[in-house]
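Appendix B. Chain record.
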Amino acid sequence: MVNDEKGQPKQGNNKAIRKDDTKSDNKHQGKGPTGIHSLNSDAAVPLLRFGASNNFDSFKRKVSIACMERYKNLGRLIVDEKYYVPTSIDVTLYNFSNDPYNVKKTRLKEAYKRRAKEVDDMRIDRTSMYAYLISKLSKESLDEIQGHADWQAKKIEDTRDPLDLWITIKKSHQILTTSNVAAVIKKTAREEYSACRQGSFESIMDYKRRFDSKLDALKASGNDVPTPADVAMDFLYGLDNVRYGEFKAEVVNDMQKAWQSTWTTSTKCMSWQAGESWRALGRMQEAPPSPP
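Structure tokens predicted for this chain:
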């Protein structure tokens, strides 16, 4: 023990650490509760990957949202795969017979101006959207796209057309294969479609989006397309057995009784009915798709 000049025990300068102080220090050191922050639409878009780590489905969904937020109606081309055309002006809505102060005539002129401006803005923004899509490509993806036949045929680098770029992105990434051989591409598309199953923790809407993507790839690759009834059955048998086993059994049993309602011939109706069945069991943790 250290003594002071008078020989008395010297008191330490350290104060007792209170429990509250520890909590405060931990908080400042990043050990406290972690805040949850949502990403903006641009930050949520992942780099598009090619090959084994292909993430086209997720990329398409997120880049579509980001493009519509940035470029408004021009961004609709990701889903529509065509340029948006604003609604034509309906002149019959403007009755000039009773317009002594030309109010309706002025409104009609303004409507034409707004439409023309929207068309011009979308045309001007094409180059910006092209650049934005390019910025979201990994090196492997960009190399694959630039090696695609459409890149040279449509002179995409010269025109900087975002629609042509997007179609080429889809063609080169939709099917999970690095081969350019048509027979291999078709076989891979068939295998991916046949192997599509709902994951144990995958929502029915996410499963349907993924299933529809595989079906789209099957069509795009040149394979024979199953009938709507066959597609609905493929979707049904791909549902998770733990959650939808009873529903699947009911549908099959009804079909064996030679009774089949019209909703079983489309995946949209099938997914909605499956969601309703799951909710009816009192185990629904997600809202079912909207009714067809």
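Further analysis of this model is presented in Appendix C.
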